[in-house]
Input
Amino acid sequence: MGIRFVLMVNKQGQTRLAQYYEYLTLEERRALEGEIVRKCLARTEQQCSFVEHRNYKIVYRRYASLFFLVGVDNDENELAILEFIHLLVETMDRHFGNVCELDIMFHLEKAHFMLEEMVMNGCIVETSKSNILAPIQLMDKAS
Amino acid sequence: MAMSGMRGLSVFISDIRNCQNKELERLRVDKELGNIRTRFKNEKGLTPYEKKKYVWKMLYIYMLGYDVDFGHMEAVSLISAPKYPEKQVGYIVTSCLLNENHDFLRLAINAVRNDIIGRNETFQCLALTLVGNIGGREFAESLAPDVQKLLTSSSCRPLVRKKAALCLLRLFRKNPDVVNVDGWSDRMAQLLDERDLGVLTSSMSLLVALVSNNHDSYWSCLPKCVKTLERLARNQDVPQEYTYYGIPSPWLQVKTMRALQYFPTIEDPNTRRSLFEVLQRILMGTDVVKNVNKNNASHAVLFEALALVMHLDAEKEMMSQCVALLGKFIAVREPNIRYLGLENMTRMLMVTDVQDIIKRHQAQIITSLKDPDISIRRRALDLLYGMCDVSNAKDIVEELLQYLSTADFAMREELSLKAAILAEKFAPDLSWYVDVILQLIDKAGDFVSDDIWFRVVQFVTNNEDLQPYAAVKAREYLDKPAIHETMVKVSAYLLGEYSHLLARRPGCSPKEIFSIIHEKLPTVSTSTVPILLSTYAKILMHTQPPEPELQNQIWAIFSKYESCIDVEIQQRAVEYFALSRKGAALMDILAEMPKFPERQSALIKKAEDTEADTAEQSAIKLRAQQQTSNALVVTDQRPANGTPAVNQLSLVKIPSMSNVDHDLGDQGVTQTNGTLTVVDPQPPTPSGGDLLGDLLGPLAIEGPPAVSVLSERNLVSGVEGASYADERLAIAPVEEQANTVQPIGNIEERFHALCLKDSGVLYEDPYIQIGIKAEWRAHQGRLVLFLGNKNTAPLVSVQALILPPSHLKMELSLVPETIPPRAQVQCPLEVVNLGPSRDVAVLDFSYKFGTYVVNVKLRLPAVLNKFLQPISVSADEFFPQWRSLSGPPLKLQEVVRGVRPMSLMEMANLFNSLRLMVCQGLDPNPNNLVASTTFFSDNTRAMLCLLRIETDPADRTQLRMTVASGDPMLTFELKEFIKEQLISIPTAPQAPAPVPTQAQPTKSPTASSDPGAMLAGLL
Output
């Protein structure tokens, strides 16, 4: 099915955004996030960007204080996901201008809107930044 | 920093952020939840804006990991809000908080549908996304046609259609019937002509889901995928917005190549050529560049291309290019590339012919096994595990053992399991195997499961030559300080059984053995004590004449434990004490454990279970499946040792016969052999087996299970006695020894199983395994025979002859005359069906192993049902056809008796597996079944076949069957074929192993932790 979840976690391990594409109960989510964050945050810059955990493969990337973690199944191209994270960051950058953790925290809804334009049902739906941002701009204009 | 118009939310987020600890955060969250709950209670006072604000707060709290068990209704109700901002929040929060089974979601179906069929594009998008993310079966049933219409509508803009594509994907997964409609595959192909890359990206995901389910209907999409790939690779008509660091949508390129991997082959030469051109360009044209993003993106494409090339079984030259690339990757410093290099090289192991090139990189891979990054180490371990064969097993296993001492906790269990499996599978000699396992227990005892040491005991018990060696080793380990408890168990067991073989060595007198084992007793747990007691009893039995001092010591221990609180220990103590006073009878009762029946390794099964939990290892798994039967191969080979006379002796020995003979025999072995280390895979010398040779000769098609026959053989030669062995060897002419090799498993059952599925084992004996994999398309079929040599010596004079019946055209590719040790060769066999017939093709197969000539005739599963293709017909189509085929010879009816009783459900399943599609609900009588299928042959066009079964609920052994088709021959053959299936359905394939005689003691509580009994129970 491709992407199972997208997580944004800061280096203190606080979740800043969580979007799941398969249903997990709250307890399962908490456990999973805890385990993954423990595993990934302990890794060094010299280690690779892929971590195997349970049935997932976590592809992750760090931007300043924020970690972007994408859980995929075994049927995904790891590097493509790694660059997809970067595309997401660039898209946020275009919208917020020098995006930082606070932007995502206080504009959680916008982060969600962008992600929703990019991923649907665990599949990539759009990769053009202007297409992704079009609905948000429309709304900004309206308000 | 405030959010547009939602100050309250910003304040809340700030508060949370300023919380010093989790406890304060919880207090703040609880306060907020209380607040929201109160506000929601008098909903009438809430403005849409407030509702929106609270719903966002709920989502925020939920994200923080707190349960939000109210307010779902409010979130859902926002979906029907007239204005975009509220509606959008409603949709997003609903899809985050609820799942498809949530009751509130059902309430929203209508509102969602109204948005989907409405005119507002942005509303359509929101609704499609919600359904795409959490839509369930009810959504699939009520919305699929609308979504399909949006997807294929030319008046719909791309922004809606791309979402419709992924929405449909979800609905298809929830209910595959939504796209199983006529003409859908054509529409799918049309979708791939799309110019808009957003729509194309999501359509490609939809295609991947559809072809992974059933590629047959989507052949027309294949050339379109190749065209898309060409368009992207050549950067034609790709808007700047879809170019990522100069690379035309790497994600779409990857997805397209993924879709192509679901088609088994590409037959059209032009399409194939174009695709290979593109792939070649990707393979050769991807350079390492400075920019990380560009580099990653281009390598994402490159790795996908590698996977596709491997899948397509490209020409050898291209394959070596791939291996060379991967070889480069696994040596680079960049960790991501190295990780993926190792991962893909593991997949590459599936490709024939490249294993040897991969082996050249062994040293490099071992370096990665010591990498500081656990992700990389895991990949390296998997690759080493997959590439291990008899030629490099020693090196690899020793490397794993060495690594074991320093490996981190997380990997030790997997590492020791893998080392144990490799040692078992590829042991060049058995003493090495014992060494490896004992080392494993020594270094990582905590991670060595009972299965592993049970297996050692099993091997040693079944191989006499190994027994003195194993006993010596066990004795050596006992000298070490602080050994692991598992080591105590295995040593005690081995020394109890075999320490008498060491009697003349220093430090190995019964007394010394006893005291060194007994030293460990205070340190072990209650589960080990019973094993030690058995060992004492065995030592006592083997000490002839009895030594009073030792006897008294052991008796004292038994009587001490007679009052033990542990019932197992107590019972053993009581029984052994009583038994040991019975004098000569003790000998019989405590005699050595008989040989274990051969079974598949439980370890391998365990490894498969473990693998399911870790990352993809399909290549390894598949290889492992092909090789599982090798697990016990080593026992089949008799190690070279002393003179043929001794050989005979050891083969002859039946443990349960008489103890006196036993001991003599054992002594003989020890004296002649000294240490047994080198095992030369010598062909088994013709033994007493040839006496039965003519009796068992024409076993070609059916044979009794191997093991019972083997033991029978042993019995015969046992009676003959050892002294004649040499003479017989000299006299027996070589030619007469044919077919003393017994098949493993029931050939008949294997054939029947293969009639219903497309891959599996056709034949197996101790030396060779013949596997089969088949693909069928209409009247054509392609079978691949996998001839696997299970031994460490080559199989020679290999011959395979196909005897096709008149209705099949068959062409077998060249079969090599020699199959190298442990190698597997693949021989494709093309089949064309010319007409309906139940005649079966036969494979006449022969080979020579040492002095054995084996010739078997095997039926090939190219049977009638393979040329059927299930087709579902509606009532409107069925009945006119049924009526028009009015009677004989086109429609035949027969009352079949002696049917194997089965429920209607089972029968429907049987028909489905025979590729006859059962049409539910066509026959109003619930006791009847109606099925339809199409038959393909080169001479006739596709012929529709209809079938009706009327069963009698009172008597399941009889039924009335009516078969109809447009061809009398077909009708007749199909009817007879189905009849055969109904009457002589083979019982569920049974494990070839004979009744495990050792299993009986498990009934008594005494034996429940006895390793012998446990072993028998385990396997």
Summary: The mean pLDDT of chain A is 92. Helices of chain A lie at 26-41, 78-96, 101-106, 108-118, 129-142.
